[in-house]
Amino acid sequence: MNIFKLSMFIGLVFTLNSCGNYEEFKEDPSGAFTGLVPGNAISFAEVRDKVLGPRCFKCHGNYSDYEVVKGKVNAILGMVRADAMPKDGPLENNQKIILFSWIQSGAPRDAQAPNPNPGPNPNPVPIPGDPPTGDLDFSKVSTSVFKPHCINCHGSFNDYSVVKSKINIIVDKVRTNQMPLGSTLAPNLKAILFDWAAAGAPQVGTGPLPVPDPIPAPLSPTYESLKTHVLSQKCIACHNPQGRARFLDFSTYEAMSAYGGRLFDFRRPERSDIIKGILDDEEPMPPLGSPFDQVTREEINVLIQWIRLGIPKN
Questions:
Q1: Residue 145, in any domain of the structure
Q2: CB burial string 195-224: b at 16+ within 10 A, e below
Q3: How many domains does the chain have?
Q4: Which of 143, 148, 276, 288 sits at a 20 to 30 Å CA gap from 8?
Q5: Which bin fits 59, alpha (ψ -120 to 50), beta or left (φ > 0)?
Q6: Which of 198, 218, 248 is where one domain is finished?
Q7: pLDDT tens profile 196-248
Q8: Which of these three, 198, 214, 242, is where a domain ends?
């Protein structure tokens, strides 16, 4: 088994469990799941004892760890919602209600007593830095940030109400560089998002939009270009020093080039293990069913050309 074939096998197992760190719901026509309870009244211990322990521990022993489950709630939700997990049959409805309610409230570790006099949701906490411009609206932020960097995994971010309801979580994940997967937003794009959030995430606004970074140059046979157009979008979420496929690190040129002949066939580039892995009929990379698009024929041709040229960095 070649090195990339091994990567595919392990990557297929773990990618579904690792992509996404906050929940994303498909809502019914009324705008929410029916029958859910206030999730902040549910603790992880209750979810563990009533759902995970009886139905999941047999295959996923590490689901007793809050941090593990918290990091995989999106994958868990998707598999349970599709009745693909547990393997021995779908959860009971009451178990789904507990799990979905807990996730929808942000998967808290500890339960919180419900507020007897709930008021409107507070605005996001302002981010330190320049004062918000007050000129940004959802359309402008979506064009600069969500569509190019988030929609691939989080399709519902086209919907203002979805983004508005999750703005604190989104800001936290972007600020700590946990999102987007496999890359980080440019500083000026972070400023756009943070200023908009600090202004209350308005749907409609006025005024000019800060100029985003220039559009990247077209794909070319260099590592830096491939990283921008292909690796960061489709590979590095798992192939990084902390990722599920950390044994094949594509996150830096130095790491990827160090594999040499184990990953690249410089005499016959099209027979390189990385190309074979991408084109595998049964287990292609990225794995089928992952949130990432498959590598296109054009991108594969540029990869082959890059290998033929000796994998230049720039």
A1: yes
A2: bbbbbbbbeebeeebeeeeeeeeebebbbe
A3: 2
A4: 148
A5: alpha
A6: 198
A7: 888 888 988 655 555 555 666 889 999 999 998 899 889 988 888 888 888 99
A8: 198
